[in-house]
Amino acid sequence: MISAFFIFNQKGEVLISRLFRQDLKRSISDVFRIQVISNPDVRSPIITLGSTSFFHVRINNVYVVGVTKCNASAALVFEFLYRFITISRSYFTKLDEESVKNNFVLIYELLDEIIDFGFPQNSEIDTLKMYITTESIKSEMAVREDSSKITIQATGATSWRRSDVKYRKNEAFVDVIETVNLLMSKEGAVLRADVDGQILMRAYLSGTPECKFGLNDKLVLQKRGNEASKSDGAVELDDCQFHQCVRLGKFDSDRSISFIPPDGEFELMRYRSTSNINLPFRLQTHVTEPSRSKVEYTIHLKANFDPKLNANNVVLRIPTPLNTTGVQAKVGVGKAKYVPGENVIIWKIPRLQGAQECTLTAEADLATTTHRQAWSRPPIQLDFSVVMFTASGLLVRFLKVFEKSGYQSVKWVRYLSKANGSYQIRF
Amino acid sequence: MAMAPPRKGENYELRQQLNSEYRDKRADAIKRVIANHTIGKDCSGLFPDVVKNMQTDDLEQKKLVYLYLMNYAKTQPELVILAVNTFVKDTADPNPLVRALAIRTMSVLRAEKILDYLASPLSRCLKDENPYVRKTAALCVAKVFDLKPELCVEYGFVETLRDLIGDGNPMVVANAVAALADIYEASQSLPATPPASPGRSSPPPSSRPSSDLFIIDGPTLTKLLVALNECSEWGRIAILNTLARYKAVDEKESEHICERVMPQFQHVNAAVVLGAVKVIMIHMRSVTREDLLKSLTRKMAPPLVTLISSPPEVQWVALRNINLLLQKRPDILANEMRVFFCKYNDPPYVKVEKLDIMVRLASEKNVDTLLGELKEYASEVDVDFVRKAVRAVGQVAIKIDEAAERCVGVLMELIETRVSYVVQEAVIVIKDIFRKYPHSYEGIIPTLCANLEELDEPEAKASLIWIIGEYAEKIENADELLGTFLETFKEESYPVQLQTLTAIVKLFLKKPDESQAIVQRVLQAATKDCDSADVRDRAYIYWRLLSSDPAAAKSVVLANRPPISLPQTTVAPAILEELITEVSSLASVYHKPAATFIGKGRLGAEDMQRRAMQPEEEMSREKALATVVAGQQAENLLDFDADDEVPSTSSSSQTLSMVGSGSNSGLTSKAISNVAKSSNPLDELMDLFSTAAMTTPTSQPIAPKSTVSGIQGLQDDHDDTFSGLSGLSSPPPQINGSTNSTQQQSQQQQQQQSSGGAQDDLLGLF
Lengths: 427, 766
Description:
heterodimer; A: 427 residues; five-stranded antiparallel beta sheet; 7 helices; 43% strand; flat; B: 766 residues; mainly alpha; Leucine-rich Repeat Variant; 40 helices; 0% strand; protein transport (chain A); Adaptor_comp_med_subunit (chain A)
């Protein structure tokens, strides 16, 4: 149980304070300010002082803090804090000091609804938006809606959906988004390659539609280490997790994904795959230190996917030694520039076609230091997004929609593979 | 009003606005009041003006007024009564949102007067036709119980809560369960029967609800399992917590629970996943069906691994729990080491935890990959992490015999980097490897000795000195190397002094001809110039050993030591069992029982130790006895002690003279006699006792920590896997005389040691 909730700015000023239980005083916020915000040595996200535990998440320039005095579920507190962040983002796009100050009334109202006496309650964004509104997101029916209907939905077995949704055109959009994690050693061996996938759905369907969803997956929970049957084009998923609308019991018994979707956008499932990952980019690095004052880079990038596809916003961050004074870089495609503040060469390629190759050559000049420090060579980081490509090979087989009235619906599927700091190559 | 409020300032302005005839102006003013409250300004003076705005159709404004009331009701208990009417009216409002809001707010106002009006609206709301109101009211019971338990008992609210478990709406069920759990916890700290106060004529109503109410029976279990699949994620957590408390009647029921909870592994909320893991770990204990057990462990692994892609804080909680689960069931993640590889940009707290888990998962199959990773980490910039990575290499070497050679290879490569902290850590680690595999990797000793100058940390120095002493016969210039340390003896920290002393004595026993002079110098330095009681006492013990019976000295100092091993668990089995039932909670994150960091009667470290020891006591006693037997066989150290003990009496002056004569009687050896004659032994001992008191605190960290006991405690007191006879590393009270200071010290040590029982036994035997 969470006893209190605070939002602090970087100076330790309280922006939001809400006590849920009587076992704490407001002044506990001072303790957090002194012990955590003004203490640079804090390394743990949970601090227990006396018998009071502080859980904090730092985001932009604010601290979002949950406080408890009991042996609370740590996972729950952090999940709640992150849920709060998600909800705030959907209400006012960004959670930072300014937006908190501008929306404090709304935040109190939200807190009142999503947590009661320290127990998280309803945190479904769509439902919340039905009765907690700001001027900016006043959805057409929300305000005047009969509140008893709202409350039924907020507590009902399908708390995520109203029964009277109507659309002239019934459409469903499915986005498969994969984040590729890669760790490659100096020698080019793949130390770790896996995919964290996310299937987002936007459902604009009338009534109470019953959906069935199929992928070209086969869950490998059963047979580990049995590599025999692989050629049937099925993707092996190590694990998957579903939105609460999916009937977990049914999935457990016959592996079928069936659900009544919430109205609008939601995350249908998350999955993880570790086998047969198609790495969209290959990197060959040749970095030498010919003298004490120079490092030479030759970095060869190859797009390893179908030539019909394109990668967007490819960004390479190539670390340089700390005592670098300047860098001369030559690139065939895109732009490369040295950023002294971060000690990296940033090579940006706005658009790269499949199978295309390009090279960067660069020379970093180093300041001479009396005492030569070993350079730890942090990994090169590659960010990108490739549309219509899944690194795991996952495909949506079907999405069937059944509704009483028997309408036809249109479904769209998009795929995207991306990396954001998770694609790392050592050199 | 008795005191006229000031006619200016912000509050005056606000007051005027709150009483404005325009609606939006009033609404605005309320917002400003809340804003002022948030930044810590006292707004209690505006109470009557704010309360006037309570009666409104604007739900947003109502909420803000309620928020104000929650914060200030306590400061204005007489005025709260103004609000009661509106509250009671609102709890009967046709709009369920208003009803819920009113009951929710009313039950947290800390004012006696409100509570009296609360009972009837609350019982109405608990039976409201709208589930939203019911689920809100369910939690209100817990709130009221927190304020006034008697009220709940009097009106039977707890019974009503219990009935709500059978409600058709899963959210209501979840909140009822959560409220019951909360009340149960709170009622544990209440007195069972309130003491009859002499002042009152009638006994006060019992504030503790009947404990039957919290027992979950078969039908309730069915209802919970049904609700589990239907309610919101937070509700699932509450239900899972209750299922964790449930005691299954037979194995079949446990199986049933496991099967029904298993699908929750697929939930997207990490707290639900960990909650499910907890329930299954608990109910698994009574499951014996092989295939089910297998499928449970198999299905548990993927969701745990998936938690590693959560945001760092959640990840950390997950990692701490995985660490715990691995201690209980080392097999669950056997094939998954790669996911624990540290990313360069992981926060430090995540990295350190991953490192620990990787060592746990290390096996012959994956050791090469792991060593490659560890080597990589050792080149990073975060000093703390680099050291832990180097240490991990050593742990792997000790854990996997076959990989030891490769680990030593990696360590040698790391030493070549000549990065000071890497080298120092590597030396410490290598010492442990030598202790596990004596006489295996002597070839690397010259390289180590070449790095002598690089070492500036006590632990690294002490480790290298230990190695030199241990292999003194193989190192040609051992006396030279040790001599360099002897020169700076006085400036060194105590652990280094202790090791220097021991190493030189070892050298002397191995090569008596060449090192007479040096041993004499070190004994003299340690007994004369050193202000640590430990060092001094140890020097005296060696001195007497060497002078009375060199053969005995040899068998004591150079005895074979049992090899060390990597402990499989970091917490005692009993505590591990307890923590497993607390998975995902703070206790599981800290790896400490909840009672140690929260609660009214916080348990001290001592209690915890006692609990940790209980199941081990038997074992450690046996171990202690075995060690003593081994000691007797090794040589007659015991006789030696007993001889000196005989004349010891309780009078301290006598004891002093005895010890003095004891050291005089030991002056048979020519080499030593000069030294002793030159100083008055009595003065020296007095000096010793006075400094002993002074140095007590500093000697604490030297005391060994864990449980393998052995006579070798004599030489290895900074090694963490040995302990046992560490009473000897600071001299036992019998030898040293009965000064209070030393006794206190050894008592403190006894308290500190987890193997206190063993030590008592040993001392008793002496």
